[in-house]
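Bug: token stream looks shifted between consecutive jobs. Job 1:
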Amino acid sequence: MEGEVLAELRKDSGMSQKELGKVLSVSSTTISAYERNKTSPSDEIKIEIAKLFNVSLDYLLGVSKEKIELNWQNVLVLHEHFTDEVREEMLEYARFRSASISKKRKK
């Protein structure tokens, strides 16, 4: 996890390290270690942090620089019983629609 991202999210929300630690059931020292990249939280804690700050794990982990707030308008849920072919078709359509909407907004 990118410690700088966590620090930014925490500060933007107005939380202290102690307050965030309390929410996550860890010490403020642990939060400080996360933010300085001295230790990394468990996957469960990463998920809780992403939920708490309403961001994707990709953003939290530094995979994506785009801060996308999660909500039902920008989350595509693919049922586990869909075949790989159906999943790919749905993702292609979602990409197509997203690109088409982006083009309209730029005009």
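Job 2, same session, no restart:
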Amino acid sequence: MTPTSYLEIPQDVLDSARLTADQLLVELAVHLYEQGRLSIGKAHELAGLSLWEFRQLLGLRHIPPHFATEDLEQDLETLRQLSDP
């Protein structure tokens, strides 16, 4: 089992930000993903959302997906194979 860390956020801070604790986790996950500090897998876990839900949220916020060069090359090769009869 993965160890868990806990962070205390004063309720007045959440109230000032007009966020619940769950909403704060989503905001943190999106921000860390956008900065490239979390993978999409870890970010959606932190947010407590499915991968599909997290991808939708990123799209709504106009945050592009992060692709490694190898991922792009693999995707292009797959497209080439699919387009060949």
